[in-house]
Fold each of these.
Amino acid sequence: MPGPPGSALLSLALLLIVAPLLPGVAARTRAALTGRRGAPVHQLYVDLWKLLRRGVVYSTTTTAIFRLAPVAVAATAVLAAALLPLNGTAGVLRFSGDALAFAYLLGLGRFLLVLGALDTGSSFEGMGASREVAFASVVEMGLFFAIAAVSVMTHELSLSGMFGAPREAGLRAGPPLVMVAAGLFGLLLAECARVPVDDPNTHLELTMIHEVMVLDHAGPDLALLLYAGAVKLAVMGALLVTLVVSRAAWPLPLSLAALLAGLLGVGVGVGVVEAATARLRLLKVPLYLAGAAALAGFGLVLVVR
Amino acid sequence: MRSLAEGLLLLVILTDFAVLSMSRLSACIRAVAAQGLLLGVLSLVVEGAWSVHGIGLAFGTVTVKAVLLPWFLRWAIREASVRREVEPLVGYMASLLLGAGALVVSFAVAARLPATESPPLLVPVALATLIIGLVVLITRTKAVSQVVGYLMLENGIYVFGLTQSRRVPFLVDAGVLLDVFVGVFVMGIVLFHINREFDSISATQLSELKE
């Protein structure tokens, strides 16, 4: 297998650079729609820079796992991004079955984040961890439905193979694709801890899910976690964009521009959802997730039929 | 035309799942009304050609299923002052899973049935709507939501009838619509009286004899 093409590395670097913009876009959209001005779009860059210059305090009850968690979360998010065919044809890494690796990299990141949260011994963090895992079990099911549907459509097990080929090869626009895309957007909101499931702006530990797990991290560790969250949003957004728009036959600059525009669209979409809906009660969240997973599963049923 | 029909059928399935997962009675009624509207448009799309028969059937379907019956059910809720929650015997999550199972079963069964020239999704969607209607009918305790389930069941039969739309004469369709209308009307009135007599329309209490 030849090494990764330069365009793949270039698009990965681009994604990693623009990723912190996405939460800013979402927050700005939400602020604009609810009649406020909101923080500037580049707020997360400023936050990251501020956090990177700070010191870290580690509790004496924590172990090495706590220090490992932020690095591992960021690393898995970046690796998952490397598997996606961001330039439209091939990812930086590609092998048969990397679609499963993609799902499990996200899972691994979450697992280590949860371990880090449990490591603090804080009851709030334990609560957040248990919620995160409970909801993730449904999210993962939906993600696998979506992957399986696309895989059956294209007879491929690699993300680059699924999305890198021109559309005539199997992945055609139609009801199944719409179902999978809609389900995937619903899952994106849960996976990236956005509004109907979790609120990134909440200040009450009792209702937090993702935020409570990072309460005890500080300085560069927190910066890594925030950055990883942004990359995860960008990765899920890029997956959605790649699913909806095939860029295989496009020249590289156009393809990258389309990716950026798509990511911007995802950010705005997240912001619109956040402005339009209230957070669901915790008891209702599994129902929402099951609905999103059912959409993806329905897409699968339509394809297999 | 065919892809439009498929899109409409998918929307029908989505309304099925909406009824399964929604907790408010009025939202369920709205979903069934939307389903009735979809069925009306669907009969036109499946027919293809514009005929008096097709337009009349679509018009009748929309009037009865999307306007009259939902209005009547809403009236029944208001008059009988039913509490808004659906009160399922089986949880929402479990009923969603049951619905998903029904979907898979109906797709599996439909693949074994002899093919018709109608859109390929028609038969599985009909079966799924039928089974999900049955699930709603069985697992909800409120009599009004059981009526909603009955309506979905009938909608499933209606979709199934669309596969034979060239052969089934207009009178039969009209007769079915009339039957459903009368049936729901009678159910509504009975509901109203049950509520007046027993202060509750929960179907679980109907099994107990009272003086």
Amino acid sequence: MTKFLLRRCSQAVVVLLLVSVIVFGLLHLLPGGPARAILGTHATPSNIAAFNKQNGLDSPVPVQYWHWLTGVLSGNLGFSYVQNQSVASLLADRLPKTAFLAAISVVLALLIAVPVGFFQAVRRNRVGDYAITTVTLVLYSTPAFWIAILLIDVLAVRLHAVPAEAPQGSFSALFNDPQAMVLPVLTITVVTVAAFSRYTRSSVLDELAQDYVRMARSHGASHRIILFGHVLRNAAGPVVTLLGLYLPFIVSGTLITEFVFNYPGIGLLAFNAATSQDYPVMLGVVVVVGAATVIGSLLADVGHALLDPRVRVSAGIA
Amino acid sequence: MRRSLRRGLAVAAVAAATLVATACSSSGGGAGGAGHSSATGKPVAGGTATYAMLPGASPNYIFPMLTAAYYSVANIEQFQRLSFRSLYWIGNGQGQPVVDPAMSLAALPVYSKNNSVVTITLGNYKWSDGKPVTTRDVAFWINLLKANKSQFAAYIPGEFPDNLKSYKVVNDKTIVLTLTGSYNPTWFTYNQLSQITPLPTQVMDKTSASGKVGDYDQTPSGAKAVFNFLTAQAKDITTYGTNPLWKTVDGPWTLVNYQSGGYAKFQANPNYAGPSKPKLQYFVEQPYTSETAELNVLRSGSTIDYGYLPAQESSQASMLANQGYTTSPWLSWGTTFFLMNYHNPKTGPLIAQPYIRQAMQSLIDQSTFVSGPLKGYGTTNYGPVPAKPSNPYSDAYEAKGPWPYSPSTAVKLLKSHGWTVTPNGVSTCASPGTGASQCGKDIAAGTKLSFSLEYASGTEYVTQTMQALKSNFSQAGIQVNLSAQPFNSIISLLTPCTPAQSSCSWQMLNYGGGWTYGVNPYPTGDQLFATGSGSNSSNYSDPQADKLIQATVRGNVGLTQFEDYLAQQVPVLWMPQPDYQISEISNKLAGTGPQSPIESLTPENWYFTQ
């Protein structure tokens, strides 16, 4: 297992380096440049030259990359003039908020989606299955922003049941105003339930068709034992993989929800950085999302291997 | 006039988007925008009013001597000046862009010796720690500026403090400035003195957090050290709500809480000595990263007391009225235009001909643009000095416009200068030469009247007007090849250039904005239209214009000749001036009007009603 982890981590480092090189290069190909974006429409050439010199932007791109990389390795992700804050502190402020939003939503979604998917698989091709399939397909194919707007219209505008805006301020504000978390959480949960329940249903159906299930039945095992003693564990594999791959979503995929609800998370940070050409923040977010993707993929592999001995054998982990 | 505020202009592009659409009110009004809600009840003391900030325009810098990266309306007019007042306050009770003596820290300055000596006398203002605001605090600002002028965003070579020969503190209330020459008193007061922001010497004249307060500012090296210290402190935004440096204020509000992203909570300063004491207990600035999010909150009828209606949601105005909001357009003190490159090797000779520029201006149907894409939330604009909000500078000639929409005038101008006009085709020069009835210098026979026009994409209003413009221009055979580019691509070209430079290849450029007169409210053209000035991105050069501009700065004449000449000459193509925003003000909130023409906030006048 140690060898497996080392190999995967090495791959992860290489992937992250490549991603950072590509993104750094692409950002510097964008027209305009950070100085003009930050200093505005009427900055004079001398203003721009002074800014570039002060921030090392007059150096060749490889030199700039090297400075940035050595900074990252020492924990310095750069400084955002747009936000007047270091990138590290921005990420430290926003990441927990997004993680909190996504974690609650995903846990809620799992609590709903797994039983629903199970129910559908067991009752496949019956009225209940068709009804739930219809609902989940509709939700799965509906854009998150549209669901968010519908929820706002009904629950906030018409019923005045909950606020239309997420809690503002520090991380603790999320706990001080739980009502304001309802709509952002609900939006992500609804979308995620639809996806997870579809996967769960498919996975359970696959397992129910396996020989070991017929064997267990022929040996007189009860339906409950078969489902929860055998099928559940095996069907969990693909779902765990999906969950691992959801980690980057947790970091960045909440963008739409954060945008609609003015939720001060990392998705919104990335969006604003992109629109204002805030290079340091964009690079910082890319590093974090890239790391989350690699770690998520790694966790998915490990989780799958732990659940399925066949994977351990084939990967040489055992 | 100086450089426009960065975010202000960025917002101008957004403003174009924000120029909304409800036909329920017009932006006519004389002042910066009525800004009055329908509040009629009995005043209630205290409470917290929440103001929604425009997307991308949240405050993030508290030290008033700010560097270029933080030079914005949101930082200066809507954040710093709540706590730190400038010597002269722009925006009077009628919403006009003029000095309001009652709101200013000092009495109107007295000019003497042929307008080369200025005597400033402070009023009875106090810092929040109870100490008086003195001329020492004014000198502190001047000393910091002199030692760090290249760092200050509003600094322009040759202007303040370069034009300050010396100063003398006469006593705690009076300071005398001796200038390097004679200056127009109005220009000097509005565009130089109004930027002076006295700072609390007793708190800020130090070089480290643990160091003692001293007179460090009185030597250049000490002043540099103080500036560096204060700048470093201003970059630590997590301490904005707690750092003692920012707690001693002479304005009506003290910042008590600031969050990353721009959330700011101010508490009323009980020692504020100005004419209008705060009635509210707290004032909150709430950042919104999208107009959608802000509108959703407005629609749900909660938390926002003073917000705005996004452009694309015009149909929501009546619903917001039902939710208890009053719609009020907020007029901006600025001028909108797009640029023509006088140094482009190919089209520069065409643009250099005033009659061609005048013909093009005659093909811009501003009234239709206002009633169409702007949905009524804008005003026609024919020169450097805006006709609205109402002001003492604009005159009838410019307001009416020497070149209003008239395709026949455009055709006539071209024909009379030797062009074969081909409506819906491309007109060509048939009579080359420099005679009065010929095409003009460096324009060969057969030259086509054709231009490329790059405009900023992503703003509905700009896109619509550019498409309409292409159609309008074709009436006189002026071909415009439109090209939408990202905003940042467009603004990257906004640099004066020479014909040989590759960066000079653009022909026409529209970034969807123009020029705002925020911190330099006297609308002279020294930075925008004077030959060689830093923000003269179109490379315009006209000796007569230079002479008239110089007269508004160094002479003692008004703006009439300057503005009329530029309106007549059309150095840029004048476009309608969009409103700054369409405000939505809670009917429970009173005292909000008039809205400031320079987009500053005065929540000390606001109060809730029963």
